[in-house]
Design brief:
mainly alpha, two-stranded parallel ribbon, two-stranded antiparallel ribbon, globular
């Protein structure tokens, strides 16, 4: 259901990493996966909200988003293929570095 995995459950990656992961992929209509039980998420969320404001994007709840831009019947019938990403790419996956931790793409 989400279009951006914040990677906040990827171990000790830090709030800056989580925030940058979200901001690199944030677009109008993006749905961001965050976990409230991760220690870095609250600090990352502060940075994410500020970054969204700089991009002139307004964060909304999922019910608000679906009210503003409800999927059409054709999209629902096609499932995940019914809602392609704006950039045409696949869901963003983290590259793994040493010790299995995510690493930033250069």
């Amino acid at each position: 259901m989400w279009s951006i995995d914040s990677l906040d459950t990827s171990g000790e990656v830090g709030s800056s990493y989580v925030a940058q992961t979200v901001m690199d992929a944030a677009r109008p209509g993006s749905i961001v996966l965050l976990h409230e039980n991760q220690p870095e998420t609250p600090r990352a969320l502060e940075r994410i909200l500020a970054g969204l404001r700089r991009k002139r994007l307004r964060p909304v709840t999922l019910p608000e988003l679906l009210t503003l831009d409800a999927p059409r019947a054709r999209q629902l019938r096609r499932g995940p293929k019914g809602c392609p990403r704006p950039d045409g790419g696949a869901r963003r996956e983290a590259r793994r570095g040493p010790l299995g931790r995510p690493e930033r793409a250069a």
